[in-house]
Structures are given as C-alpha cells and as structure tokens.
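Entry 12.
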Amino acid sequence: MTGLFISFEGVDGVGKTTQVERLRAYLEAQGRTVVVTREPGGTALGRAIRQMLLHGVDGGAADIAPRTEALLFAADRAQHVAETIRPALERGEVVITDRYLDSSLAYQAGGRELTLREIKDLSLWATNNLLPARTYLLDMDPALSHSRLQHAEDRMESAGDDFQSRTRQAFLDLAAAEPTRFRVIDASQRIEQVWAAIEADVETLLKELA
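Predicted 3D structure (tokens):
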C-alpha cells in the first residue's frame, strides 16, 4: 500500500467533522486525492447497519445485545475496508475516516461489558489487521462536548453521563498504549488552535512518509 490512512476519534460533539474537512482541504490543496469516509455507514451496507445501531429497528428502539452490537460494528468495518479504504490506499490516495476501530474499543469495551481483547481481535480479523498510520483523538469532557450537539441524540449519545465518561477514559487509555499512532489534542480549544496542532503533525507525518 502506498496511500495514507488517517482516523479521527473522540466522543460525540468534539468537532471531528470540522477538522476532517479542514484536513481534506489542506491535502487536496497539495494535489493529493483524498477519500473522506466514516464509521458506521461508510458503504451502502454500512448505512443500513448504521441505521440499526444508532436509531433502532423499524423506527423503534432496539435492545441490541453487546455481542450482537460488536458483530454489527465489525461487519460494517469489514465491508468498509474491503469496499472503500483498502482500494483507495492501493491507488495511493489519502483516506480520512471519522471513527474506526478505536471507537469500537472505547464504546464497546470501555463503555459496555465486553473485554478490550475480544473487541480488538474481532476488529482486526474483520479488517485483516489494517490500522491507521495516524489517529487524532480530539479529547474533551463529554458534558461539554454534548452541549455542542445540534441534533437529537442517537442511541449511543443518549447512553448516559457515566457511559460517556468511561468511553472518554477508554479513548485516553488507548492513546497512552499506542503513542506512536495516536496524537491527543485538547478539543476544548478554539477550532483554529485544534487545526494548528493537526496541521503541524500532518506536515511531520508527510515528511516521514516521503
């Protein structure tokens, strides 16, 4: 693979979408081909899975068992990698995804009842061990980030303060365990400050890859 794979992580409302679009514009201005995608829902199959996971089944809330939830996320990720991410990387393009494997580790292993190893093994199997070259964790107190949300809360967003706090800590623990891949950025700063930190790191990353 000759492309570059970047992911953005963090609890809801931290500004991932804004920074993804800034990074896309920055890279495209350098003449690079960029694919922006997301999880869940980065493919047609993924969008159907996303609807079930975040909004329930047949328009109503669904009591999804933890193992079922893990398998649905893994199925979405397997299709996402096979259909979108890996082909783009093989073409030498830059892939930026809003959420990837680490969201499953944080939300399902950190916030629910499955172990980190169970979720990680499942996701690595689903993706044939594909990990991003860089993961930007936009970190913020969930109480503050959720006040920024401008839409009705989905199933994950409405899981409660304790769940969100455990998830945030799980993200931070993941970053501490893989300091080479992760960059943790204080998302409570102004948008321009957050972007400046990302831009500086991307410049260094591109030089290293070159």
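Annotation: The chain has a mean pLDDT of 89. The longest helix spans residues 66-90.
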